[in-house]
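Late entry, written up from scratch paper. The run itself happened at the end of the previous shift, but nothing got recorded in the book at the time, so transcribing now.
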Amino acid sequence: MTTIIPCKAFAGAVIACAACLEKDTMHHHPGRMRITRSADALVLATATRTEKVKLTFRIPCEPGEAWVAVVDADGTSRLAKAMRPLASGKKNSNATIEIERTERSLVLVGGGQRMSVPACEPMLEETTPTTGETFSVAGAADLPDRIAQAMVFANPGEYRSIARGPFAYFSETDGELTVPAVVATDGHRLFVDGDAGDCRDAKIVFQVPGDDWKPATKALATDFDTVRLVRTSIPQPADENGKKPPEKWLTRLVFEAADRRVELAVVEPEISLPHWASFVPRETNDPDFSITCDREELAAAVKAVSSVSHEKNAACMLRADPAAGILRILAQTDNDGGMAQREIPAEVGHSPTKYVHLNGRYMLDCLAAVRTDRVRLFQHSAPLDSVRVIEVAPEGTRLRMRGMVIMPIRGIDPVEEATATGADAERAAVEDPDDATVEAASSASSPPPEPLAAQPA
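Output as recorded:
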């Protein structure tokens, strides 16, 4: 009863199943992983307790005797931890593992180690709900990547339903669905993968809840051959008078590849969604702030100045110098006026005299979603208009439209602080010229403290 399979594929499947069980929102109710030895494959399957995420992995093997084993969540987690070193590395690409089903356990030998985990026979399975409508989603091989990038801009723990996960918009053509846009927002920033104007014409929209997304992330890290939208009827018991309640449906996105199947529950929006195109600024005149620079240089500068700030989500202050062709990125390091500063080369179209204040973490999230080497930032009216991050693609390169918007935050410019100090001195001069003269002389004799600044890049 020994089964020999590729070690790396089995380890990856076990790790994904363990992540599904560990990240189940009801993880205090133990889940399980079912391993089925069929005629020519080993099939691993699991699901969250809520049944909103289902994972199935199929690993081909030599023909052999069939058997079934069920491993609980604790055993699955321990097995995944032991096999994690075998899931990566070139030296493990051709390695195999032997699995033997005993009366009360599974015995695994491979990678220089021998493991045994308790296993039992499966219990009586509940009747699977009948499948209703099934729609094929065309051109959706990269849909998991689009949802994953949008998920960063959502906030699953937010009390507002609109922030709990991205929205996938579906348009129907000749019986097939396409996804013209994936949208996510937490109220402070907006991410639109696709044309925001197409959202108005989409007939179907579903939200991918962030809490349901986490258990499926490891299993979705691959390319899928087909994507389908499946509606499943949920049986409802009759009330006391025997009256049948309205029919309810569970809608899932089903991703299938040769070696795996992932089912992810999606929900209808709880509120009426706005027209996202109205939130993505378009250039109608010369903006107050417009710069183009290298994406990696800007991300490194933002990360450098933010890392030394005393605040967790420090404000990054941006101001360009057209004469020098540079962009200055500053962050306050302490409450006494210390500043960290980086400078990077930039093509400056327009620059206001004041700084643009943005959340540093939001900036890094946006820059991580940029697919081009160069990026452009613009703001119509400084300092409170939204800032749009635009991908600058080389000539001849075509990319699907992507809109990324960050709302600025309020802050005090270093220049404004200096101006305020000068205004105080002028007022003092009017009230008491002698005291003002002494204070001015004292300030002139003492050089100003140098800010804590990082070396320019």
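The longest strand covers residues 176-185.
(Scratch paper discarded after transcription.)
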